[in-house]
Amino acid sequence: MIQRNTRQRDTILAVLERAEGPLSAPELLCRAQQDLPGLGIATVYRTLKLLTEDGRVRSVNLDGESLFERADLPHHHHFACRVCGKVFDLDVCPLALPQGLAVPPGYLVEGHEVTLYGVCPGCSA
Amino acid sequence: MIQRNTRQRDTILAVLERAEGPLSAPELLCRAQQDLPGLGIATVYRTLKLLTEDGRVRSVNLDGESLFERADLPHHHHFACRVCGKVFDLDVCPLALPQGLAVPPGYLVEGHEVTLYGVCPGCSA
DNA sequence: ATCCCTGCAAACGATTTGCAGAACA
DNA sequence: TGTTCTGCAAATCGTTTGCAGGGAT
């Protein structure tokens, strides 16, 4: 649990606020260092872990790497561009029946993750 | 492209054949070493890469790690247990509309990945 | 006898952890 | 002032790569 407010935590949260999609820890570090040079990668990871435990941040797995986004975003999923590798938020959930899925009996579904792969507008030009 | 048949490649493929779900490279190594002690992790990765390029194996990303499965399996998705961490194959695609998704114009969808999270029968007991 | 393939070990990138000093409350 | 936090560096873990020897064709 987070117990104190610090410049690094404010900065990390601010970067997440203005992100256009989920960010990896190294990417987040890169952006945050523009506001707060000297910030260390360890602090980024420690802060992300605390924020996740606090329920303020959520992690999504994509293309083998962990990306982080604010947890207060409305339910959505992601689109990963095969060309430039960028990840975009989609404001739709293509999963028609979040619950009534035909899963074998005994499996308790608590959540789902949907990722679409393809080419983004910028790369298809 | 694979050009020669070797004991290690046969073994790796055999392990994938009898897997109940996608496997990570370290997990695959562990199982394969029971048939072929001395097998190295580098060979596992190199073989998986070649098999993927050959279209015989496919990789799925889940929980931040890359898992591998045979590419000749019918279209399906995965269920990841939050308790034991195991991944199971689901023989259904909960994605009702593989095509007509409400993605913003300009995005070309070439594929999708769906993962359900929850508790498996073994862990809910 | 080629030349591909393998094992070992070093290299790498992402993530975690130990430790001493810096900074909130 | 007392802890919590932070930065640095070392440690870990998954993955890749270089190299010399072994094996398939």
Automatic annotation (TrEMBL), chains A, B:
GO biological process, alphabetically ordered: negative regulation of DNA-templated transcription; regulation of secondary metabolite biosynthetic process
Keyword Zinc found: yes
- The positions annotated for binding Zn(2+) are C81, C84, C120, C123
UniProt GO molecular function: DNA-binding transcription factor activity; transcription cis-regulatory region binding; zinc ion binding
Binding residues annotated for Fe cation, in chain numbering? H75, H112
Query: What cofactor does this protein call for?
Result: Mn(2+); Fe(2+); Zn(2+)
Q: Which UniProt keywords apply?
A: DNA-binding, Iron, Metal-binding, Repressor, Transcription, Transcription regulation, Zinc
Q: How is the cofactor bound?
A: Binds 1 Mn(2+) or Fe(2+) ion per subunit. Binds 1 zinc ion per subunit.
The record ties this protein, via InterPro entries, to: FUR, Fur_C, WH-like_DNA-bd_sf, WH_DNA-bd_sf
Gene3D superfamilies per the record? 3.30.1490.190, Winged helix-like DNA-binding domain superfamily/Winged helix DNA-binding domain
- Recorded family membership: Belongs to the Fur family.
Report what the protein is called: Fur family ferric uptake transcriptional regulator
High-level lineage: Bacteria, Thermotogati, Deinococcota, Deinococci, Deinococcales
